[in-house]
From TrEMBL:
SUPFAM superfamilies: alpha/beta-Hydrolases (SSF53474), FMN-binding split barrel (SSF50475). It comes from Sphingomonas immobilis. PANTHER family: FLAVIN REDUCTASE, FMN REDUCTASE (NADH) RUTF. Keywords: Hydrolase, Oxidoreductase. The keyword Repressor does not apply. This is Alpha/beta fold hydrolase. InterPro entries: AB_hydrolase_1, AB_hydrolase_fold, Flavin_Rdtase-like_dom, NADH-dep_flavin_reductase, Split_barrel_FMN-bd. One of its GO terms (molecular function) is hydrolase activity. Gene3D superfamilies: alpha/beta hydrolase (3.40.50.1820), Electron Transport, Fmn-binding Protein, Chain A (2.30.110.10). The keyword Hydrolase applies.
Amino acid sequence: MAASMEQVWFRGAQGNRLAASAIGDGDAPIVLLLPAVGQSRHVWSGAAIALAAAGRRAICVDLRGHCDSEPAPGGDYDLSGYAADLAAVLAQLPSRATVVGVGPSGLAALVAAGEGGADLMSALVLVGVTAWVDPETAARIRVALERRAEAFADETAVLDAIARVHPFEPAPSATRQLIGAYERGEDALWRWRGDARTFAGFDLAAQSARIEAAAAKLRLPALLIRGTLNESVSRAATDRLQAMIAGAEAVEIDGGGHYVVTDHEDAFNARLLEFLERRLPLQARSYQSGADPRLLRDAMGCFGTGVTVVTTLDAEGAPIGFTANSFTSVSLDPPLVLFCIARKSANLQSFVDARSFAINILHIGQQPTSDRFARPGDARFEGIEWQVREGGGAPILTGSRASFDCTTHAIHDGGDHLIVVGRVERADFEPHRDPLLYLQGKYRRVHFA
């Protein structure tokens, strides 16, 4: 990709590493770009540069098993796997993203949004997407895709194989972006960079009902883009899908087929940017009661906080804890502090029943600890040094910037959270260590003068 691109990495739903390239200011609104099956993230180079120039941050991701991304554990390359990876990537971003997907990756984005991930997205753009392809066409495309995993004598042979997937459309002309998914080996033959099992695809006919159900649940800005010469995504199918998505828009690009992103780059970028500027303008955003709660979360993220790990012992005496920045001092006389815990937390009842808890304030060297306690699972304390002070109490993480040993004072209703107030029984601190901070979805660090 362009020299100004930076390499970034994400974790997929099964721990698989996903390669990505990013361009644009790190605090700008994010546009996440997903290539079609068989393509690499390089197909988005032109769009990414245009988005960055327009004040957005573009992140182009290789799908699981594609190019620089790791293969899927177990070889799972179905709609659920792609959708789960997308949800995992979105959860690692500092703010909601507009997601742009082509073909199967667009379907994965649609399913991810409709089945619970819409709060992680600000908008959805679907390029050449349909829930309905006749079995004969689907079978022909699958056979042609599988042939792309063969070895080829030269770049011309590679491009011929790519063109055969959609033989009734114009052959792709922006070949540099497409060749990026292949590499020349020591034997001088060209091969696709990835797990060939991805070309088997998934049975779209078997997923149609699921896709329709997800589309009906969408409540976010959505744009459908179709090339007028797309052989397998008809105008009627696009209209049908548009009708299922509340408030969705649809546009066509004259003369384009499956490769409108690259072969009609200027026209595609113009339509994408026009949609973003109109529906998600680069200006101060506002939250009003009843609006998308993720928007309020973004607003709250403008307030920088420290990072803590809140701990206690469960009924069996085992340590439990989670990362939280919803911690504050309440009173000096009596000495009270509070933290908030989500009602959906798996540890909620343990903290409700506990007579004591500890607040461990982290320093800049404890970012891995924060990450560990932010992830789901029962192994958060593995490899972590901790102790319970003489006389009892909650687990104290060794080496924290400060630790507050508290007895539970009161628990209050806090909407989708509970507010737990504790009386400080003991506090130990080392004020010369720099704190670990959190602002707008990112860790921050400040060094004292």
